[in-house]
Design a protein that fits this description.
Three copies of one chain form a homotrimer.
Chain A lengths: L3 E2 H8 L2 E3 L5 E2 L1 E2 L9 E4 L6 H5 L5 E4 L11 E3 L3 H9 L11 E2 L4 E2 L4 E2 L4 E2 L4 E2 L4 E2 L4 E2 L4 E2 L4 E2 L4 E2 L4 E2 L4 E2 L4 E2 L4 E4 L4 E3 L4 E3 L6 E3 L4 E2 L4 E3 L6 E3 L4 E2 L4 E2 L4 E2 L4 E2 L4 E2 L4 E2 L4 E2 L4 E2 L4 E2 L3 E3 L4 E2 L7 E4 L5 E2 H11 L2 H19 L1
Parallel strand pairs in A: 4-5, 5-6, 6-7, 8-11, 9-12, 10-13, 11-14, 12-15, 13-16, 14-17, 15-18, 16-19, 17-20, 18-21, 19-24, 20-25, 21-26, 24-27, 25-28, 26-29, 27-30, 28-31, 29-32, 30-33, 31-34, 32-35, 33-36, 34-37, 35-38, 37-39
Antiparallel strand pairs in A: 1-3, 2-7, 22-23
């Protein structure tokens, strides 16, 4: 466990420290659970009660709440961001020793930087490049001619197909697949003729991709994930999709082929986005929304049907099938009433 | 193929045997398909016709149906449970030889029980513990300091990140990921600041998890799956979720961060559950439901929209966008009619 | 980069060539992007403008559009199919060298054809058969007694459980799982008694399955994917499902246990199909549809709720819960008006 003094934390955060600079903490906890050896934070006034009674060894908070806590404080402009910035100091993840594990297979012409770490049973294909300080956890496969940027982290069993690019400081979690074939076929008399997928996947800098995702290579042209995009687990991104800078995509989302997603969008969980549509910068989709068409201006959109008890739902559900008929009935009523009035 | 006498089966099931105790069966089959060398079962009166004409070598059934079948019978209180209890006798899965495959990598300080089996190309991180009779299939990665309980079965290419715990007799199917980072970031001017995920995943006893699932580690505090939970394929469970005892979660479900799911819930396929909500014990969600809010009492809930032909759906769908307007029209009509009546 | 003459392409496509037979192309591109060294195609009149101004070295097109382009042309009956047929000539994927990588583990009794390729860190279980020209990419696991047909391609980290069959010329993309246990349990007082899954998965000829999919083995009897089926990424297919010939299943689809899907169906993305129902040949489901019941005749079906701005959606959503009440109000109004008329 790391032990870190409040002085060090204040300097890391560029925070104003009120309290004992020599006091040390060795972990993060919620206001309610934190003890004297732990650091906490408050990002919303909702938690003022918890702040009052917290036993935390120090709290990250904004100036406006500084007088609400008697103990040690680290005062910053954005306490939630402050919390994020210190969180990395307390991880127990080991940094990997540089070097190639003896069980890893490095094919001819591949270049692994001296400061990179390639774990047990990894496979690096011919002419691939693994950048400085990159970390490949056990079981990772990197295809022929891939370019893996500096400080990229590929967790266990990630598979990158040939010719793809992963930008500097990006991370991909376990069991995700990058560069698999897009779903492209021409119909024939017997079934389907495969359209070989000739493009690649290009992932920008500082992107994070969750576990068990699949991102298809382009058919003609490439699939592109811009810088600073964050993607959760079990997300499917089809061929030739473009995802704009700093967009966030939550778990279980699917994006169909050639969709273009703008910058700084937030896509909640279980959303499905149609292919060949364009989503404006700054768009938000509620959880479970089926996005059938594009939009030209940002804003918030939803299609989520309301949650009901099964009894209620059964009655109302039948009615949804008769909705068009009802509109016509109401129009008839209006006409009838109007004619009476005349 | 195992050959098992009805006497053995009766004793295994604590069943009343009517028929030839020496008769042997070597597999299970449906009532319609079963032959003399096979065992079948009937769990619902719907299948009475099939029972009548079945050629099964023996049938597991309840006392109330015992006189409906002329052949060998194993009479039990709950025939479906009886079927489950004998099914394991007929599996062809080989139990793994104990020991560590020469190609497996065991890091310093890890402890593998003498009766455990660690397959080809597995990776066991520093200070991890693999319990008695545990089975790791080829390609499994277990992170630093993990605790894998006795008789746990991790199928091929399962990845467990560092510091996670898997309770005794639990199974996890191939290509699933446990303990990957939760989706936690603080917004910044350029994009997102990662919140390092400091918690772990703790999985109880006798849990089964399907293939290609992802269960995130906690941000602060842990993600917890209680004893006897069953989870199907392609399920995403976000950071700090708690799933209560004996809850069943079907395929393609996503559960967002910090949701608390009660005991003995049944979550049908393709359900998406919002974060930071609490679901009462004994709740059932219909397939495809988007669960936007918690509930305080169990019961059955749904939001699934009705299936329609595309022609019908097109007409009714347009109307759903005009629903609020329609309610107002109807209110106007009511007022107009009322004023006429006065 | 391959360089291919138009003469060769015409002969490969059985196309009528108009232009310079010695001209060579070395890649495919869209009409707008293509240069003199690239081949393009036009499959819809929508792109006539792009055709006019295209710099492509040659264009695949139909006779009806042949006079709309001045450059080299390959005239065929179905240009989209023509494009698919030539796409494979330009892939950069290396064909694997035949033979077993020294790091691969081949268990006793397994048979690997001399022309097959088994990559680094693969595992082939006892008595499995790997057919002629089959390609196993690094990290693949094939269970005991599996039969992998000729020219099958299993991409990195695919896991096939014991006793499953993959037909000739089928491909399965990275991190997919075939033959994991179905989700079958009998309820007990404490939780759930596992029903051991005794069937297998049988996949036909010329099937393609995407990345990060899971297809369960049968409980009793088998799960079956017929010839020429195509399946996208992150698809879940439960135990005992049957998928008919040449059916196409897009990404993020889930199909529950024992569903029977007909031939030549097209299932769009994020569809969820209920268990124990039968879907007729030639059925199409729109994206995001929840399929609660079967159908006896093909046709197009949907349940997708309409996309709305959040403001609109909030108003209309409340109304959906009051729909049944509204129908009753309208009926009362009709009665009241009728009684006035009498």
């Amino acid at each position: 466990m790391p032990r870190i003094s409040l002085q060090e934390l204040a300097s890391h955060l560029d925070a104003q420290l009120s309290g004992d600079p020599q006091h040390c903490v060795e972990g993060l906890a919620d206001l309610r659970d934190a003890n004297l050896n732990q650091l906490s934070f408050i990002a919303s006034e909702k938690y003022l009660d918890a702040l009052n009674s917290s036993n935390a060894g120090a709290v990250i908070l904004s100036e406006s709440l500084a007088d609400k806590f008697a103990g040690n404080k680290l005062i910053v402009a954005d306490p939630y961001l402050g919390f994020a910035r210190v969180s990395g100091l307390f991880t127990r993840r080991l940094s990997k020793p540089a070097g190639v594990h003896p069980s890893a297979i490095i094919e001819e012409g591949a270049h692994v930087a001296a400061t990179a770490s390639v774990g047990a049973n990894c496979f690096v294909g011919a002419d691939a490049v693994i950048g400085e300080f990159a970390e490949l956890y056990p079981g990772v496969s990197v295809g022929e001619r891939c370019e893996i940027g500096e400080r990229v982290r590929l967790y266990n069993n990630v598979v990158i197909y040939h010719d793809c690019q992963i930008g500097p400081r990006s991370s991909i979690h376990a069991n995700s697949t990058i560069g698999c074939d897009g779903f492209g076929y021409a119909p024939t008399a017997e079934g389907w003729e495969k359209i070989h997928q000739l493009g690649v996947v290009r992932i920008g800098e500082n992107v994070e991709i969750g576990a068990n995702c699949a991102i298809d290579r382009g058919a003609i042209g490439d699939t592109e994930i811009a810088d600073n995009v964050i993607i959760d687990n079990l997300v499917h991104i089809a061929h030739n999709v473009k995802v704009g800078e700093a967009t966030a995509i939550a778990g279980c989302v699917g994006i169909a082929g050639s969709a273009v997603i703008g910058k700084r969008c937030t896509v909640a969980g279980a959303v499905a986005i149609n292919g060949h549509i364009e989503i404006a910068d700054g768009t938000h989709f509620h959880g479970g929304t089926i996005v059938t068409k594009g939009n030209e201006e940002g804003g918030a959109f939803a299609s989520t049907p309301p949650l009901q008890s099964v009894d209620q739902w059964r009655k109302n559900s039948v009615r949804m099938r008769q909705l068009d008929k009802l509109f016509k009935q109401v129009r008839e009523l209006e006409k009838a009433l109007k004619s009476k009035n005349q």
